[in-house]
Amino acid sequence: MIPLHLDRLGPPGLVHVQARTGQDFTIPAPQNPAPQADPIQTAPAPTGTSTGANPFSTLERGPTTTEFALGAAALVVLAVLFLFVRQGVRTHLINRRATLDAANGASWMLFSALMLTAAILVSATVGRLWQAWAGLAAGFALCLVLFGAALVLFLRAPDRRR
User: What pLDDT digit, counting tens, does each position of 5-17 carry?
Assistant: First the structure.
């Protein structure tokens, strides 16, 4: 460690740092500069067709932090809204004399299906993933399975009477 002293010359607020010998401290230039590598020449990808394995190669840019925050806020608002819907379905089934377990199962399955659908739609919108149709199709297929299960549970719940 080099002991330094403060030079009290100059306007207030500026601090001059000097070594005890009176010379200013400077960073020396590197002794062996690294040779500059030649940039790799690549052929431009053909437009209109995606030949690579990456389905996101056609995207012009990634989502920003603001877009992520807006997407997360939209999911929170939808989750609160879907919880009210879940409670309404549960109350309706209980009024139709369904057991509490059957009403809870049907309402939570409906909530799960609604939230998964909302998450897929929000992430596809935020990430501009509408070109990635294979991933969206698989997600929506899972949503259909969940909605089908919720419908079956909803229709069978009143049969399980208290």
Answer: 455 555 554 455 5
Strand partners, 4: 19
Rounded CA-CA distance 144/158 in Å is 23
* Residue partners of 88: CB distance under 8 A and separation at least 6: none
91 with 97: CB under 8 angstroms?
Answer: no
Alpha carbon distance 102, 87 (integer Å) = 13
Question: Which secondary-structure segment (H or E) carries 94?
Answer: helix 65-95
Query: Could you give the CA distance from residue 23 to residue 49 in angstroms, rounded to a whole number?
Result: 63
Report how far residue 125's alpha carbon sits from residue 130's, in angstroms, rounded to the nearest whole number: 7
Q: At 149, list the tokens.
A: 């299960």
Compute the mean pLDDT over every residue in the chain, rounded to the nearest whole number.
75
Please enumerate in sequence order all residues whose Cβ is within 8 A of that of 96, keeping only pairs 6 or more positions apart, or say none: 157, 158
Query: What is the model's pTM?
Result: 0.58
More confident residue, 123 or 160: 123
